Amino acid sequence: MSPKKDDPAGDTPTKATKPATSKPDQMEPEVLEFIQAIDDYKRIHGRPFPSWTEVLEIIRNLGYERSEA
């Protein structure tokens, strides 16, 4: 097997330690809540792709705050 053109060293990237899943019954409740909040925001505001500022607003509206480290 020869290396890929975009991979001169012939190394293949490793996958994340926790694989992503697309099945709702395998997702954590917090993930489903976040997805629903994003979908609701997009529908209400007519935005197919919220900006990062809007995503931060959605996260804050879910009750998340930065902890003091």
Give the structural class: mainly alpha
Radius of gyration, in Å, reads 18 Å
Helix content: 25-40%
Query: Which percent range describes the beta-strand content?
Result: under 5%
Number of strands: 0
How would a textbook summarize the main sheet? none
* Shape label: extended
Can you walk me through this structure?
The protein has 69 residues and is mainly α. The protein has a domain of 38 residues. It contains two helices and no strands. The termini are far apart.
In summary, what is this structure?
Helix content is about 40%, strand content about 0%.
Keywords:
69 residues; mainly alpha
Task: Walk me through the topology.
Layout: H1 29-45, H2 52-61
